[in-house]
Amino acid sequence: MSRDEHFSCLIERDQDGRIERVSLSVDHGYGEVEEVTVNAGKADLVAATLHDIIRAAGVTGRQWSTPKPLELDQGAGSQVWLLLTAIKPLRRTDRIDEVGAGVAAMSREEAAYWFSKAHQPRGLRAVRLLLSDDTRRR
Questions:
Q1: In which band, very low, low, confident or very high, does the pLDDT at 78 lie, cut at 50, 70 and 90?
Q2: Hey, how many other C-beta atoms are within 10 angstroms of the C-beta on 8?
Q3: pLDDT at 133
Q4: pLDDT in tens, 51-69
Q5: 104 near 52, Cβ under 8 Å?
């Protein structure tokens, strides 16, 4: 993982304040920007986990509810990226909950390790299998 990486998280809400979409942009520092977005139902399912990760990074409640992008450090940014990327293809809510809880329980160093591993072939699948009780191949 490059020291030049920059993580920016945008949380979009509907008129009632419910999370409608969560987007994370990762600027890898060499001209490559990666973005991952989770919409509606899945964003709602991971909102509490996302809030825990962001709060542990020192983001205040006022910042959490602002429509402006949140700038995250590498540890928190890695965790949010793992959370959003790992749950994006999942359909079963129990697996989404398991993976989300596992990512939230990771240390910053562990999240940074898995962030770099997940960019390799089958790395993200390994993260999902590690964090899920489900041993069946998907």
A1: very high
A2: 17
A3: 61
A4: 999 988 888 878 888 889 9
A5: yes
